[in-house]
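Continued from yesterday's entry.
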Amino acid sequence: MRVAKELGALQVQRLRDPGFHAIGGVPGLMLRITASGSRSWVLRATVGSRRRDMGLGGYPGVTLAAAREKAREARALIDKSVDPILARKQARSALIAEQAKAKTFDQAVTAFMDAKGDEWRNAKHRQQWQNTLAQYASPIMGKVLVSDVTQAHVEAVLRPIWREKTETATRVRQRIEKVLDFARVSGWREGENPARWRGHLAELFPTPSKIKTVVSQRYRNPREMHDLMVTLRAAKGTAARALELLILTAARSGEVRGAVWSEVDMQSGVWAIPAARMKAHKEHRVPLSRDALELLKSLPRIEGNSLLFPAPRGGVMSDMTMTAVLRRLQVDDATVHGMRSSFRVWTQDHTSYPREMAEVALAHAVGSAVEQAYARSDLLERRRKLMQDWADFLAKPAGTGARVTPIRAA
């Protein structure tokens, strides 16, 4: 290869003609001048069987000395049978890939929730999920790259709340674990999950069931339910009627508050709650007692609103609305959810109905997964008698003698 005369900085500055100008100092180093006058450094070299023109940057941003240094480095790679242009592309591609993986924990949470959003039963549950991580995890590791989250971060989140807020801490840990698993599968982190419980954090933290105090929902003794129903039926307002139906059907608060007229078949006396509104994601049919049907018949129907118990502004009433009814009635020994417990205690202590039937009435899963797979019947007609007996019990003052249904009849 013919060696070009080595030009100095002043000589390079004076070059004006468009085209490629050999600079010397390093074989193949050129200054390219375009017709518009722009200038850039180029290394012209044969790599393998191909001649390549490798850009080294613009002039004068890249000085003559810097251009020669870059050219020497490229020549050294070529001598080692490395294509510097290909190597640069690969390095840039690797950098872009690494940048794409550089997600913070907060970003991973957002991505996880977007990807798994259809799994949440409702917007409120999704918000609760997000709020717990925002409140407890984000302040400590929200800005940390998810690839760098360690056991120390997880411990820093959990230790302050593990004993005082055990149930919340347990949920936070589970949610962190899910986000980190999602991040690993997404290629944003590697290695084991530092939030894993079994065989990991279980060795560092006391078992939740051993330290948390289980607080059962307060419920009213079934014998005192008649007096409550008398007081409740005298109370005015949509929320009072909603609570009355909740007690008669042993349904959950959300199931009653979200009930719409299309779910109720007045002729057959069945309220069919769709799977999307059920905790177990399975349709639940509620046989309506005569008392429940009379209650439903008394409800006003609002044009343009399908809810049985709409809030004053037309939407679904708040979950605290029925609680407020109990407070107004000065019922401080029971909660709204505790009314289901009153029903369950009644079936256990005051009737001979099978346990399984009571559990089905409460929309609880009964038996093992195998048993559930074969138990196709929801005992609707047998439960119809159960719910009517419950309504009759509620209508009778304590001590008048509740009817006990023999197992054969049930």
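--- second protein ---
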Amino acid sequence: MFLNLRYFVLPLMLCITLLLSACETTTTPDKWWEVPGTTPQARGPAPETYDPTALPRSGSEIPPWDPSQPVTVQQPDAQVKAEEWMTQYDVRGGLRAARVGLLVPLSGSAANVGREILNAAQLALFDFAGPHYELLPYDTKGTPEGAVRAAQYALADGVSIIIGPLLSQSAQAIAPYLEAANVNALAFSNDSNAASQNVFVMGIRPEEEVERIINFAALQGSQRFALLAPADEYGIRIRAAFEQAVQANGAQVSKVVQFLSSSDDLPALIRDMADYDQRRQDLLEQKRELAGKSDELSKKALDRLELLQTVGDVDFDALLVAAGGQTLQAIAANLPYYDVDPKKVRILGTSLWEAKWVHAEPALLGGWFAAPSPKNRSEFVEQYRSVYKEAPHRLATLAYDAVALSAVLADDKGEADYSRATLTDPAGFLGRTGIFRLHQWGLAERGLAVLQVQSKGFREISPAPQSFAPITN
């Protein structure tokens, strides 16, 4: 059940109006880690643009909003249209309602995900919406231009809050219009760069996953950490969070290796990271020394060395592998090949590991990764499957939580408080992905669990927190 620690759930009721907007389509580069349905493969940067020491980039610059311009999002009749809609054209006779705009791609390349988001939104309506609550969907067509047009329509229709859009570029594109209209948005993106004065990033950010898993590993005794991540924007963000978390735990960054997915050098990078050549040479030298001796002790020692690839340990006791899909499979195959022993090195990951085939990789068995607790999401998955006869996309859960939050904050008189102060209640909220709260700087903080890879599934070895209350002894 979705609860605010200070609110009660409103009676069940549904009132939904569909309004689809027509928008122009344009092709823009997407960030692979937040693109629905794509295989999480690392993409290399453009030639001569990658700086391995750089912090996460700030994203595309948005032209500053000119306060001298009308605040009706460049539609002079927007306020008039909103008033007409609320009074003259309300088929229910002018009843006041809390109006919420849902910006989703109902056409274009991400239309399937948009449909699942809309399905989840309707489930939340059935569970939480009161008699004076309206959800108005608008088609973004999966492009920033489409999102801007959809946001303009939504604001002209008098919405009090916007849920969506899906991707960070779209969220950044609508930010000036939201600021001008003083309307907040709960975007589905997990890109920190999309956060702004009126845009909250609802997605589960990679930085949070890194912080959670590094904190847990350090608590279990890991002290020397290595990182294996792609050399793209995602990898840069992962690296910054990794180094900060290791430092915060008083541990040591042993090695950082970043790779291009288009490169054939991944095995060579892992070989170098593991000091394989030196450790192999040390083994051969020891075997040569023992081969010239005839005593029984030397013979037994030589027999033991015949079973080894190398001697000595790698200079890290925990390795964070921030990859998924075929890249993760290639890494999992090369780690044991170059004698990175999972009995001595704890293999760590992110939510990109959450795939069924991971259980079949011996090198990943016993590994840990951070992700939302499956227990929190399982009830929603069953509910969704029972209604729509298919499993929901992972982003559908975020949509359910966002719509449920907007419904809980609306009263039975059509009044709703979607102010920044209310949305950033420090007590937080409990949703299908677990607890979360929104911060003034536009990012969501979530309570994540730590899962362990086992042969038949994932086991939750460190539960997600149940509240944001300070931990006391």
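Residues 3-204+373-442 form a domain with the Rossmann fold fold (CATH 3.40.50.2300). Residues 5-28, 42-74, 88-93 have pLDDT under 50 and may be disordered. Will compare against the first tomorrow.
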